[in-house]
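Instructor's aside before we start: the two examples that follow are unrelated to each other. I chose them only because their records fit on one page, so don't look for a connection. First example below.
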Amino acid sequence: MKFMQFATAALLLLAAACSDDKASSSSSGSRGSSSSSGSSSDNDKPKDNSAPRDEPVKTERGYSESKQPESASADGTEIVADKQYQAGERLKVSSLGFSYVVPEKAISVFATNGSAINIGEVGGNMLTLIVARTGVTEAEARDMISQPYDIGGGDMLKLTSEITKEGDRLSAAMASAKITGYVQMLIGKSTGVAIMSIGLPGSEDACKEYSAKLADSVKFATPAGEKQRKEHEAGLMGKRAKVFKFKAAKDYSWSSETNKDWHFGSDHTYEYTYKNTNSSSGDAGSYAADNDANHAGTWRIELTLNYPALILRTNQGRIYTHTLTVVKGFLNIDGQEASLGASDRKK
């Protein structure tokens, strides 16, 4: 059916909630430090598109005001990548501390390295995505569900209503030129779970009802991955992560150099510096231009369905989120290889 052609793209929609830089442009995910061709423009300079939050700068994690019960361990069957699960089964993600029930006449699957759990109606036109992350605060939950998502072909899925808050649940309507949807965000004490149902135009009420029913089935537990999360944090304390990129024309008529540096303190404070230098020469003469951006605040590591996430909150209350992966033994930040060494600014 035509709607399912959106399924692959839709699996990436909420990935930005855990793996894109919320207040900066998205990363191309390319590795390597040099290029001999391409444009001299650099799209990795942070852009403050997010408004300051009312929540004060702090290292507090989670949502202590949540009324969602949190058990010692999650109920259900541990979800396994690439396996289909049938309606009525309760599935759990122990590392993040939550479980849910597969709705009637539906199947659920989580693809290897996927950013979202996929739930599809058997014989229907609705697709539902589940995204989760540990340590979500209310401000971060709002930030997660308020981002526009590119579903391809220049079509953007955006909120079409104000975010409604009822206790520890946030909800809002979404739509693009091709599809409609509704998102529910449950904020537990230790974990946040976003559920987005999307369907064909005209199915707004059905999407709202479906996502709400699925959200009602969610149960929370103490995340079993807490030890791993703390180990990830310990590995960055007192360190500097550096991403360096250099691009130039084959004849070196122009060049672009980018330096990104993150300094992580053991007190969970950080400093970030960005510098992009562009230069060119030609018959009309030559020029060079620098673009600098930096920010500081608090940092922490959280767990998602696939990779650890680096969460930065600036002293002005803005939120930045980056994915952390290890490729061939090297740390990658948003898909870009980073060198890791001792910081000369943070201990």
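Example two begins here.
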Amino acid sequence: MPVRFSFRRMDAAERRHDGPIPPAAPPPGAARARLFQRLAAEQREDIARRRQALKAATLAGDTILRRDQGLLRFYRDQGAAWTASRLD
């Protein structure tokens, strides 16, 4: 017995097959490179704001700043890798 919905549009959202959901197409390399470059730029701004807000005595032991620097390193590495793969 099929499920009946009170709204017609919800009936179209019902899955009618048992197969796997097709995966989304990944963005091309150029789009990924721009994404990671933009994320790195935003992370640099966040780190600069955090450094300005902290006092010199607490700057060296700040765990949030250390985490943000790790994220910046990851974004830079990914952006550089996708840019290099695009040039090949």
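Residues 29-87 form one domain.
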